[in-house]
Amino acid sequence: MKPIRIGTRGSKLALWQANHVADELQKAGLATEIVIITTKGDIVLDRSLDKIGAKGVFTEELEEGLRTGHVDIAVHSAKDVQSSIPDDLELLAFMRRERVNDVVVSFDTTFDIHRPDLILGTSSTRRKAMLQRFYPNATTAESRGNLQTRLRKLEEGQYHALVLAYAGVHRMEYDGLIRHVLPETQFVPATGQGSVAIECARSLDADLKAQLKVALDHQATHICLLAERAFLRTMEGGCSIPSFALATFGLEGVLQLHGGLISLNGEHYIDEKLTTANAQHAEDLGVRVAESVLSRGGQEILAAIRQERQ
């Protein structure tokens, strides 16, 4: 049998994810080969994501590799995957989720998040808006590039600290730089944050897809991501809007989704928490949460964002 060709971006974090996938497949007795593909998001670093069109910015070239057969599966950070997948492709698996929090990292061991005139580096629209709301003492500065590039800019003094996803910081073994963990109940993460998504062509051999799913998919994470992605899809804003969604399992398997939207300046914050006792209704839960947010002022926030970006 030919090796499973794993498509990935070339950053250290993306390669960590691809190697993690390869390890799990090799445990299942499947040979693997890693194929590096450069995406638009890796090349265009002088503009924020919302300025270059965030839809598929880190996935489009990988998806084309799936269509041509250059790779068998593509590995993504789940939070980078656009809300709607092309009809000829599918998200086959979501791997076990890492801790979901955003964290503040700094080389300064005396770092204080409440200090005045704080400058925080981030490329996330959601994080910028939430920082304005919950930490008005801070200003944000654009921070694009891979983790190592951002840390170099931090060390050069361009920022006092960076706001990043814990998962990436932990996987790259920079835990010692974490100075503050932002609570996920307030600083709700982006859809899919902390999980690795596996994408393939629908035409991929059915038996192979079944083997891949058994080896890579974490059922509880997959159910949570179904709810979160249904929320994002219903919001119709894509990854570049300051939306947030986190699904969790509580007592007796009850699925809860906490989702919402925040205005770019942080002034308007609309959130909703709903539950379902039936995990098969995960996507319905995502739609209900999004519809509630949209009906309570979310539509106006999205309209204002679109107008500002025009």
Describe this structure as you would to a colleague.
By secondary structure, the chain is an alpha/beta fold. The protein has three domains: 1-95 and 195-217, Periplasmic binding protein-like II (D-Maltodextrin-Binding Protein, domain 2); 102-181, Periplasmic binding protein-like II (D-Maltodextrin-Binding Protein, domain 2, 3-Layer(aba) Sandwich); 218-310, Double Stranded RNA Binding Domain (2-Layer Sandwich). Helices cover 37% and strands 24% of the residues. The protein has helices spanning 12-27, 40-43, 49-52, 60-68, 125-134, 147-155, 166-171, 206-216, 219-235, 282-309, and strands at residues 4-8, 32-36, 73-77, 89-94, 102-105, 118-122, 138-142, 161-165, 178-181, 196-201, 243-249, 255-262, 269-276. Helix 9 (219-235) crosses helix 10 (282-309). The longest helix is centred in the C-terminal third of the chain and has 28 residues, at 282-309. The radius of gyration is 19 Å and the shape is globular.
Short description:
This protein has 310 residues and is of the alpha/beta class. It is 37% helix and 24% strand.
What's the number of structural domains?
Answer: 3
Low-confidence stretches: 45-49
The CATH C-level name of the largest domain is Alpha Beta
What characteristic shape results from the CA principal axes? globular
The CATH superfamily label of the largest domain reads Periplasmic binding protein-like II
Q: How many helical elements?
A: 10
Strand order of the largest sheet: 2-1-3-10-4
Mean pLDDT: 93
Task: Give the distance, in angstroms, between the N- and C-terminal Cα atoms.
Answer: 51 Å
Question: How much of the sequence is in beta strands?
Answer: 15-25%
Please state the CA-atom Rg, rounded to the nearest Å: 19 Å
What would the CATH topology of the largest domain be? Answer: D-Maltodextrin-Binding Protein, domain 2
Q: How many strand elements?
A: 13
